[in-house]
Structure formats: structure tokens, C-alpha cells
Amino acid sequence: MGEYVLEMLNVSKAFPGVQALDGVTLRVRPGSVHALMGENGAGKSTLMKCLIGINSMDEGTIILRGEEVNFPDTITALNSGVSMIHQELNPIPLRSISDNLWVGREPRKGKFVLDKKKMYEDSKALLAQVGMDDDPEVLVGTLTVAKQQMIEIAKAVSYDADVIIMDEPTSSLTDSETDKLFEIIRRLRDEGKAIIYISHKMDEIFEICDEATVFRDGKYVGTDFIKNLTTESLIKMMVGRELDAMFPKIDCEIGEPILKVENLSSPGWFADVSFELHRGEILGFAGLVGAGRTEVMETIFGMREKSGGSIYKDGEELDITCPSDAIDNKIGMLTEDRRKTGIVPVSSVLDNISIANIKSYVGPAHVLNHKKMSEEAAEYGSKLSIKTPTWKTPIASLSGGNQQKVLVARWLLTDPDVLIVDEPTRGIDVGAKSEIHSIITNLAAEGKGIIMISSEMPEVMGMADRIIVMHEGRMTGIVDRKDFTQEHIMELAALPTEKVR
Amino acid sequence: MTENTHVIKSGKEKKSFGAWASDNSMWVILIGLIVIMCIATLIKGGAFFLTYTNISNIFQSEVGPGLLAMGVMFVIISKGIDLSMGSVVSLASVISGAFAQDVAYSARIFKSGLVVHGFIALIIGLAVGCIVGLINGSLVAYTKIHPFIATLGTMSAGRGFALLFTQGNPVSQLNKDFTQFGATNYLGGKLHSNVLIFILIALIAWFILNQTRFGRNIYAIGGNQEAARVAGVKVEKNLVAIYAWCGTMCGLAAVLTAGRTGSANPTLGLNWELDGIAAATIGGISQNGGVGKVSGCIAGILILGILKSALIYLGVSSYYQEIVKGIIIVVAVVLDNRKMMGKQA
Ligand SMILES: Nc1ncnc2c1ncn2[C@@H]1O[C@H](COP(=O)(O)OP(=O)(O)OP(=O)(O)O)[C@@H](O)[C@H]1O
Ligand SMILES: [Mg+2]
């Protein structure tokens, strides 16, 4: 083996309508963490899928430990010591944690009989490694997205692979879990493993990575050691220009209350949540995973039944039993789980943008005004610079970040008074992130109310006027912008409820 | 952004024939089938297969299963299935037939006694189909039973009701008012009213799927039900409407077929649901939900119809027909899947 454990040379791959990769090169050293960087749709995931045999490359050479390889499928790749944490989670929701961890390689007694006991013990040990103490018999579908992600991580690590690919592993994790992950990554690195790390979070790159390779529009831009780079120089390599300021907060006048929530409760999830949202305000929600923020919003939006409490908009009490009621009352919600409650995978980009606003296009005799629909959808699509071969392309073939932009466009198109955004910039590249931030700020400036959940502290702190902190289903504090400090918010997020107020 | 970060084309670019063929594999199969049949009949020394009378006959005999395919297409796009269609055909035919018997004729076994105008009887037939559809839809939407199970139940019960109602006897001697809907000829016998009705239904189906909010909702529900709900689609109401449309199509198929043959029968429509599902499936309507076009469905109907009559025309035993049909269903779906996978790899 030479200097590199893995070399991918001159790899090209085309999909109908897009050249996803155009002669790119990636060289990874053992015992190092290699960042793979680039905007949404740059081809990062595609290259990794070519490596592990999900996509077949059109051209190129892959050299693993000095030998040329071309894996026909993921199983062969795994057996040769290459494992991957996928950008899109693929759990089997109705099976237990341990079934999910060992699927396809279950420990057996003899040839056929499952060794249930070993499976259980091994699962427990593996979960402990990633800092989880859940029962391995619990169904994966009942866990939060963050926990599902930690299970994926545990699984990828357990193959004892030499090359571990992590495609945006932290996009649904909070800081504490991210720290846990970094601990694992450092340990793996010290054991001499190579880690390919894909993320749009700059601070992570500088914290954990040793080297970075950058792609732009499917082309190779360059490789350098992290110590030679700065955030600015890295962003410049990615987008090809300097970027405007992040979190472009416009200070605008906070108007009268638009949404009022009183004593909202849902047993087992959260209790006594009360707050007011004003026109022109961005209200942030912070907390650890499991704090119940998402559940509160899903209840307001009619995705969950509420057991107590009331919701008022413009002073009038609302009776929302399903999302369409909420939309009729001009409330919109960008949900957390893109795949489960966001995209309609086989439908076109256009249909995915227009679906929530389709009632505005119903003309006389129930005929849809296709012209207006596609014009407006395309307008918002271009505004967010969604990268797609055509508007008729099924959304499933877009890169993860571009799918997210489609969903943002969907809700902007409904022109809501209150927009709830749950992890709005998950998986979105730096350029688009600042675009989405400025769109959100502008909406607030237009007098709309915005509720924003984000696990990225700098994001909530940069955008919000006030932050409500939750801990285990209860509000533990409301912090005004002038009092924002990371320490204060983290303290409230970890606080036992008794101490509050 | 760099110069070509968002490449947006109109989507109307010229497609190669290969691309068209892979997108429309059912039309390729259909054309291939017609060519093969023409050659086969010529070799056999028979008359040319592709005559107007032949084609018109094929259309006529496929109207029943064809309407079912138009109905179940909506259901399959929404990621459901309807097994009760054949039973609904029988139930709707005997109930509407009971209201349309010719009282003057006294030798009939089943005697209902109550006669309404043929048009009302026709509406009753549609209503019966619609009601069973509403039941199916409500079961699927509100009790969350899997559609396969829900419609398996109504399939069995529907046929049972039809047999009970008639005590197993045919409902014969239907009056002229009733039979004329499915059996009027225009242009000197060149155009049949049931074919005309089928064309009308196909146009309506196309219109609903492409031009209305309901149609868009069907695709969204089939593509990702939860996402559709979050985007404001009233999933339950739409599901009920989808199954009601399917049931109504069964009712229509029932009255047209009963009208054309002059009698209704509790065994009418036996296994038609399978023909309807087969036609839709051959036509590229995926059981995975969220995709499917009316044009494809029509191609599927024609493939099955041409196959059937051409084999009869060639004097091939009907046992072979079933075998060939089976092969075509599988081949069509394989071709369709290959297209999808081609995009992945
Ligand atoms: N299965 C597919 N069919 C068609 N096009 C595809 C498919 N998969 C990816 N693409 C296209 O290839 C390009 C690269 O996508 P890829 O997912 O590799 O981007 P990425 O760098 O991982 O972006 P992100 O940061 O958004 O995850 C995109 O333009 C995408 O639309
Ligand atoms: Mg990606």
C-alpha cells in the first residue's frame, strides 16, 4: 500500500440531463479524516455511491489498498472494508434496533438458527459505543430521527471497515450527539481507518477533518490540508466567489401578536406550552433532541391531535384537526423529515412545489390553471436556484440539498402568515443557506411571523428575535435577543424543569 | 453561483425514438403485437386481420374490462387495489336489470315486478357501483385496512348478495329502454354506443387526472401519503372518492354489458377485476403508486383485447390465451421496471 488507502481517479458519471461527475479525483490517506466539500448537487454523494457500487461509473479507476477495484454492489464493498452512512436514512421502521443493526449478517448458532442472545448483547454494546442506552428490542420507527441516525452510525462503524464514508451524518444531530460522533471518529482515525466526511457545516470541517477535497458542478477543484485553509478560502473554492454575510438579520419592527398558543399539551410528549408570536418576529426554538419542539409544531399544524390547550390566530381561536385546516388559516410548515413527510418522490419537481398551494390554481369548472401553476412554481424554483435538469424531473433524482430547496419553495408559494420551519437548512450548502436565511428574514420584514426550530445554535442565535428553550416537553425559558449566549441557552436546555420561573 | 449552476430546460426538447420507446414500452408492445398478428394471419392464409369490423369488434368486447381498467387505474395510482370490481359488476347488473325487465314476457324465471324507465335503471346500476365504492373507500380510508383485504371482503360479499338477490337465476328479458344504451349503432353499424361511452370515459379520466386538483391529489397520495397530508391534501376524502370512481365505472360496465347481451346475470364479471388490473398494469401503472397515464392504460386494454381476439381468429385454443396473457403481463412490467432502473444505474 502506498501513501493512500483509497484513490478514485478521473471518475465520470452522467445521469439523463446532468453530468454529475466529470473526471474527478479523490485520494484518501489512512488514519485521516478527509472532507469532501461542494455545493448541493456537486456530485459528492454520487461519487461515494460509485465507490460502494450503488451507481456504476461511466469512466474512471478506483484503487483500494493498491489494488484496482470496481464493486458491483454494496455487499462486496462491505466485505472489502468500505462502509457508508447514507445521506438519506433507510431504516426498517417496524423492526427492532437490533434487527436493523444486524440485518443481513445476523449472528447464528449453526447455519440457520439465530443467536438472539448474542444479537441482544452485541447490540447493547454497540449502542453504548455511540452513547445510547435504548433497549435493542425497541422498534426503530418509534425513535427520533437523531437516534435513527446514531443507529446508522453504529452500524457503519461495526463493520470494522478501513474506509468509512459519512454522508452528512450530523444533519439531524444536536451538539451533544455530534460530540459523541466526533469522539468515535477520532478513535477510528487513531486506529488507522480512513474517514470520508461530507458535511455542509463549516465548523465541523475545521474541527474534525485533516484534509479537504472540493468539487464544483461535478468537476474537481482542489485538495488541501485543512491547516492551510480558512473558512473563507474553502467557501471560495466551493462556490467560486466570496460569500455575503451569514445570518443577514434585518432588524424590523415587531408588530402585534399573530399567533397565540395557550397551555398546549399532549401527554407523553409535552405539556403547558404557551407563547405568543408577533408579526415581523422570528421566534426560535432551542433544546436537545427529545425536547418536544417538533411535536409542539406538529400539533399546531394539525399533524398530531392535541389533548389540551388552545391556539389563536389574529385573536380568533382556531380549530385545526389536519394540516389542510392549518394551510387554510395561512399557516405553513416545513417539516423535519424530508423523506417521510416532505417529498413525493416519483412526482415532478413542479408538482412537488405546487402541491400545497394547488387550490389557488383551481379555475372555473375545477380546471387547473397549469400555465399559472408552472410559471409561479418555476419562479420560486429559480429564486432558490434549484438545480434540476427540467421541472418535470422526478424530485427523487435531485441531490439532497436541492430537494430541500424544493420544499422551501413549496411553502413560500403558499404565502403563509405564519411559517413554521423545522430544521430549514438541513443539508443545504453554504450559499443556499444564506439565501434561505435572507428569504426568512425578508418574510419577517414583510410582517409575517416565523417560528424556527434548529439544532444549529449559531443559526437560531443568528436569526431569532427571541428563543424559547425546551427541555423534556416543557418550556424552560424565553430568552431575548440581547441576552443570547450559547452558555445561557444550553443551560436552560439541560435544566430540570422544577428550577424554572 | 457559477454560470451553469441551474440548468433549466423547458422539458419539451426533442426526444429520440429510443427514449420515446422506453417511456412508452406498452405502445411498442402493442404495435409489435399487431404486426405479428397480421403476419400470422397472412401466413395461415386467412383473411387480413386488420379490418374495420375486427377492430370494432375488439373494441366492443373490451368495453367492460376496459371501463374497469379506467376505474382501477385511479386506485392503483393511489397505491391501492380493488378486487371487488367483478363482483360489483354482477351486483350492479342484477339490481339494475331487476328494474328493467320486460313485464310482458312471462316465461322469465326471475320476476321483479317493479319496472322503471330504462334510464332510471341505468342510474340505479351506477349508484350501486358507487355505493360499493364508497364502502371500499371508507374502509380503506378510515379503518386503515389494507385495500387488498377490504376489497377482498366486498368482493366476496358483493357476489353473495347478487346470488342471494336472484337466487342464482339470470335476470333476463331486459326492456328496450334499458338495452339501447349499450347497443345502439350509429353510422350504419360502424360505431357502437358503448364504444362511444368508453371513449368519453377515457377523456373524462384523462381530464380528472391531469386537469383537476383531485387528479393531482391522487398522484400525491400514491407517491407519498404522509407528505401529501402535510401538504394539505385531505387524504381520507380523496381515497373515498377514488374508490367511488372505481365502483361507478364497474356499475357502468355492468349496465352496458347487461344491455348489450339483453340479460343480467349474477355470474357476470367473473374475474373481470383481474383483466382490469392486468390491463392497467401492462399499461405502465405501477403498483408502487404515484405514476400512470390514461394513454398507457388504453394501450394495456388494447393489448389484451387484440391478443384475445387474434388468438381466437387464428384458432388457437383458449388455454394458450391465458398463458400468453400471463407472459405479456410479466414482460410489460419487467420492461417498465428496467426503464426505472436504467435511471438509477
Ligand atoms: N439517480 C439519479 N438520477 C438522476 N440524476 C441524479 C441521480 N442522483 C443524482 N443525480 C444528479 O446528480 C447531481 C449530483 O448529485 P449528488 O447527490 O451527488 O450531489 P451532492 O453533492 O451529494 O449534493 P448535496 O449536498 O445536495 O447532497 C445532481 O445534479 C443530481 O440531480
Ligand atoms: Mg449528497
Q: Keywords, please?
A:
heterodimer, A: 501 residues, alpha/beta, Rossmann fold, 6-stranded mixed β-sheet, 17 helices, 22 strands, 25% strand, globular, B: 345 residues, mainly alpha, ABC transporter involved in vitamin B12 uptake, BtuC, two-stranded antiparallel ribbon, 14 helices, 1% strand, binds adenosine-5'-triphosphate, binds magnesium ion
Describe the structure.
Chain A has 501 residues and is of the alpha/beta class. Chain A has four domains: 1-81 and 161-241, P-loop containing nucleotide triphosphate hydrolases (Rossmann fold, 3-Layer(aba) Sandwich), CATH 3.40.50; 87-153, no CATH class; 255-330 and 419-433 and 448-501, 3-Layer(aba) Sandwich (Rossmann fold), CATH 3.40.50.300; 337-415, no CATH class. Helices cover 33% and strands 25% of the residues of chain A. Chain A has 17 helices and 22 strands. Chain A has a six-stranded mixed beta sheet, sandwiched between helices. A six-stranded mixed beta sheet of chain A has the order 18-19-20-15-21-22, with helices on both faces. The longest helix of chain A has 16 residues, at 175-190. The radius of gyration of chain A is 23 Å and the shape is globular. By secondary structure, chain B is mostly helical. Chain B has one domain (52-340): ABC transporter involved in vitamin B12 uptake, BtuC (Orthogonal Bundle). In chain B, 70% of the residues lie in helices and 1% in strands. Chain B contains 14 helices and two strands. Chain B has helices at residues 17-23, 25-43, 52-77, 85-98, 118-142, 147-166, 176-183, 193-211, 213-223, 225-230, 235-261, 272-282, 294-313, 318-344; strands spanning 185-186, 191-192. A two-stranded antiparallel sheet of chain B has the order 1-2. In chain B, strand 1 and strand 2 form a beta hairpin. In chain B, helix 3 (52-77) crosses helix 13 (294-313), helix 9 crosses helix 11 (235-261) and helix 12 (272-282) packs parallel to helix 14 (318-344). Chain B is globular, with a radius of gyration of 22 Å. The chains are: A alpha/beta (501), B mainly alpha (345). Chain A binds chain B through residues 15-18, 39, 55-56, 216-217, 239-240, 301, 303, 322-324, 326-328, 333, 335, 340-347, 351, 355-356, 358-359, 361-362, 366-368, 370, 378, 381-382, 385-392, 397, 410, 431, and chain B through 1-2, 4-11, 211-214, 216-217, 219-220, 223-224, 226-234, 288-291, 343-345. Bound molecules: adenosine-5'-triphosphate and magnesium ion. Adenosine-5'-triphosphate is lined by residues 15, 18, 20, 38, 40-46, 87, 387, 397-402, 427, 429 of chain A.
